User: Fold these one by one.
Assistant:
Number 1:
Amino acid sequence: MNERGSSATDLGVNLGGIKLQNPVTVASGTFGYGREYEDYLDIAKIGAVIVKGTTLEARPGNPGPRIIETPAGMLNAIGLENPGVEVFLQEYLPYLYEKNVTVIANIAGNTIEEYALLASRLEGQPGIAGIELNISCPNVKQGGLQFGTDPETVYQVVKAVKAASSLPVVPKLSPNVSDIVVIAKAAQAGGADALSMINTLMGMAIDVNKRKPVLGNVFGGLSGPAIKPVALRMIYQVYKAVDLPILGGGGIMNITDALEFMMAGASAISIGTGNFVNPMLAQEIVEGLGKYLKQSGLHNVQELVGIAVQK
Ligand SMILES: Cc1cc2nc3c(=O)[nH]c(=O)nc-3n(C[C@H](O)[C@H](O)[C@H](O)COP(=O)(O)O)c2cc1C
């Protein structure tokens, strides 16, 4: 049913037009611009590096504290701190291009027009294989409601970015909705080439001594193993209902987690919080997938995709 990837290598994946040498990517905001991890692993061996979310202008991010550990995960409210798209293109992208890293840019805007402008700015830039749309951002024109929670807005933003770019476009779905399939279908109708899921789940923590919220922003995004069952459930549902390849993630900490995501319907996977615990995790999972294929007598990793999904 879903688009199956094809490649000369056993681990190769075609994620809606983004050619990956293997299905393992690192999630936006957890791997900087790649270079930060070069002492730990060979970043060119990862399927793709999804770089920190880029906005049109530089953003200072939220006031602190911006991160707190939770049982089985963490809350973050970074607030998209980044130097802006021009600095990304001039100072960070050339290094990744030189290193032959497959780069997926991650963009975020306050309005649909900003998303389209960002997409057109990335057009023709050497080294960018695709665009991931962070739609878990407040839509300033609609009273700050997250783009990703309204199907009509999801449709509009994907359509606008598709019109502005010739690159494959991968909306990153927010799990903070009651029916993820409705949102996934809206993204498909807008022209999405693949779907990335899931972004963080909205949460918070209270400091009982200070009697106030811990995070400077009050609310933050929950990530890590705590969200894995939710991510798996949503990927499973979308795999059954929507004919687009899925980049799946949320709490992947080891090879077994990675296999679970692929069996639930993910053609490729993303590692986020796991990079903070073990900076070599992405490479270890690439190696683990290779071993698993050999042990199970499978030829192509894509044979695993959706294998656990019941008709
Ligand atoms: C510190 C931090 C910063 C993040 N920044 C971004 C970002 O800039 N853009 C984005 O789309 N997602 C961002 N995310 C979400 C991750 O890319 C990922 O979707 C999420 O953490 C779930 O995966 P995980 O449980 O493996 O971490 C961030 C997550 C963390 C923990």
Number 2:
Amino acid sequence: MMDNSRGSIYHTPVLVDEVLAFVNERKRSTVVDCTLGDGGHSEAILANSQDNFVFGIDIDDEAVEVAGKRLDAGFRGRFHVSKWDYRQLNLHLARVGVPRVSAILIDLGVSSRQLDQAHRGFSYWADAPLDMRMNPQGTRTARDILAQWSEAEIETILREYGEERFSRQIARAIVERRCKRPIETATDLVDVIISAVPAKARYRSLHPARKTFQALRIAVNDELSRLDEALRKCFGLLEPEGVLMVITYHSLEDRIAKTVFRQIEARGAGVVRTKKVIRPGKAEVARNPRSRSAKLRIIQSRGCWGKENDDKKR
Ligand SMILES: C[S@@+](CC[C@H](N)C(=O)[O-])C[C@H]1O[C@@H](n2cnc3c(N)ncnc32)[C@H](O)[C@@H]1O
């Protein structure tokens, strides 16, 4: 069903051992998996200790259903799943009556399930309508952006979110093409991109449409807006000495996580546990090529126990 090195029908989670190492620092952990996906990280955390409890959330109904089915039965009483946006995690925890948790995981980006299912419109290889919403109730699709945004706005997202060298040429070609007929499907968009980029860029190892599709996905789902605010809010929901773990796949996401963590550390509220960012080793990348751009950053809360606890330990 999907490009999954282990032959599993599920998304292959990245940096699992590294995440577990931090969760395992406590005998008993209450963890929020903010981006549940197929539930790979949650499963590893639940299987690792009978004492762990996981709240799994995702904005994608299908993720909630798939992970729910996968984990509900095997970990009854220790797993709670809801459709929710992690940017409002505070409201979810208030709803379930849990003021603070010991670990929060945010695994950003897109899941293999979302990418591989043609009808979701995330992939340049499938001739499907350009949807790209992670939350099917989201108000904006990629088609809407291509039809309604100005040339300058499209160029900006291609440059910033896609880091696309030919952003100007592609944005111009999109606007020229939509004046003649709408860009509806992935194939329509790939044709426009191929016509816009220089011939030598068409035959590189990376598909010439890859960056444009990435940029559109980030814009459709507003993935970078309010990420800094969401990280700060999540950090505020940690118990003393709890950990916030963020896996990023894009340089802008990573920069936001790094900056927010440094600011929290500078005001004395937390300690950055990953002075050097954690990346997958060669074996993991060989096993799961989609992990190649992953970076894990972790910050630990000092909370109100900070100095008090240090004193007790002495
Ligand atoms: C890389 S996948 C996570 C994969 C997961 N760790 C696993 O092991 O299967 C990212 C997930 O985040 C979800 N997501 C994206 N933005 C979200 C948000 N604001 N709130 C909750 N989930 C979100 C996506 O729908 C997607 O399922």
Number 3:
Amino acid sequence: MQDIPTPGAAPIARRRFLGLTAATGVGLTLGAGPIGASLASAAAPPTIHPTSSWGAVPPSSAVEMLNQAPKKLFIHHTATGNSTDYSLAHGQALARSIQRDHMNRGWIDSGQQFTLTRGGHALEGRHRSLEALRNGRVHVQGAHCTAQNDVAVGIENEGNYMTVDMRAEHYAVLVDFSTYICSQFGIRAYQIYGHRNFNATDCPGDRLYAMLPRLRSDVAARIGGDPTPPAWPTLRRGDRAERVKALQYLLRSRGATIEVDGDFGAATEAAVRDFQGRTKASSDGVAGSQTWNQLAWYLTRGASGEAVKAVQNQLVANGISVAVDGAFGPGTETGVKTFQNRVSLTADGIVDPRTLSRLLA
Ligand SMILES: [Zn+2]
């Protein structure tokens, strides 16, 4: 289900992970060129029906093409009926209906980049999304998850999966489609999420949400990597710890004006609530997985600011000596690699959500 397209909190270091794709990419393109032996089981990508094939109207203004690949893949459900019409014609009508609904909300085009029907038909949603996918190094900014639209590509799955399971035929294509999207953009399998991991919503439904560990595993079986998503601490009022400082630094990086004292008091709670409100996360004042998912970003050498201090302070808390100066230089990079080696993560010196979560453990 869609959410309003507010960019939300300004992403820190938004331009700092240009070029990261090459480092994190799996180094192959399904359906084009040689495929390594490890990919022997990878299925061909599904046919993706472009906007021109289903009678899309032009966007009301130009879609925004960002010069960076998305880092995350979000799974949605349309919360529409569980149709038994599995024809392409039905899917085309659904795509038109979604676009009409979204443009009636004042959006420029369909909110999601892609649509997948119960019949297993994959369709382009927002214009130019197929072009971006083929390219693999750019991203069409969508409108499917508040505060994540700069970094997340989304698939709307036809149906309502609160109490009903996705059809096996539909799921099989979802695996193929997700594998192709992750391969093209260099998205790691662990970065496949449900909409509810970021916003206060039921989407993609309880039953489909429960399928996501399997989806991550099925995709990882084809593209490699550990499919385990980040596990975040839960911090609440009254907590006193070094990792409360990390939370406070991260909140400051998103505009909060709180002190960094490691004491989760009233001011920190208010700042968490404010951040949750701005990112459309559940607004309970408790820093749980939704809040951390929204706070986590990609930090690499050259980054600077409060979020870097969060990382540096946690390195120190883990016994790795670095200056807590907010400048991600060679010393911090070495410290990050040392930590990654210690906890058996790929020692690439990049603080992605999983590395951050391990620093907080
Ligand atoms: Zn959704």
Number 4:
Amino acid sequence: MQAYIAAIEPVNVEWSKNICLKIFFAGCNFKCPFCNTPHLLETNEEFLKDLKDVKKEIELNGSFTEAVIFTGGEPCLQKPQLVELAKFCREKKIKVGIETNGSKPEVLRGLLKEALVDFVAIDIKAQFDEVNAGFKEVNNAEVSVNEAEVNNALFEKVTKSKTFFISTNQIIQDIKTSLEILHEYKDKVDIEARTIIVPSLLFRKEDVIKVAEIVNELDARWVIQRFNNMPELVEKNFEHIHPPSTTFLEDLKEACVKKYPKLRIEIK
Ligand code: SF4
């Protein structure tokens, strides 16, 4: 079997004391304007690799690798390849982590059901709501369809994920399902939610507090990440936006913890 894998690199990650091996799957179904891996968003032929060679590389690094982390791009888009590599790691007694945008709940469910992952990092890129009903209950308050549509419009702006084939509402529903699945497994795997604070997109206190509500329900560690204006972003105009200051991020953290005291927030 072959997979679109753009790179395999040893990295230091905080949840592991030893070196981990990151496997970068090529291809993503989102086009976040601030994404700093634009070269990983398409499945170019140059990335095609035989899984036998990928396994060899995992084995070669086995002596100093505590875990393999599947990232991207979006690794869940290549389900059979991802599952096969995760099973291989299990056989070799190497821990498995995955970094996902949460849009493929059935893949996540499969990995968790078969106990093939130890760590899941899921992006919660912006707040979202269900727009099905006239109103929905949030913390005993009714949120109108209009408000839900405003929230979902921001989600679309942050992810640029809708296409002719899939609506923003469907993507949001899929992410909600992923979060529900993760909540079910929260005592069995290490779960981390991640949100990037991007000036001009997701930065207003009221928006970040709405994301905090979602993370609070998930009951996971939450990493608030600083947007980084690196030279190669998906949208060039984001390269001129300054990263938020530490004080700004600390203020956001304080506001979220004030509203949801049980939140475990790290700023990076
Ligand atoms: S930041 Fe967005 S576009 Fe980039 S890999 Fe992650 S989900 Fe895909």
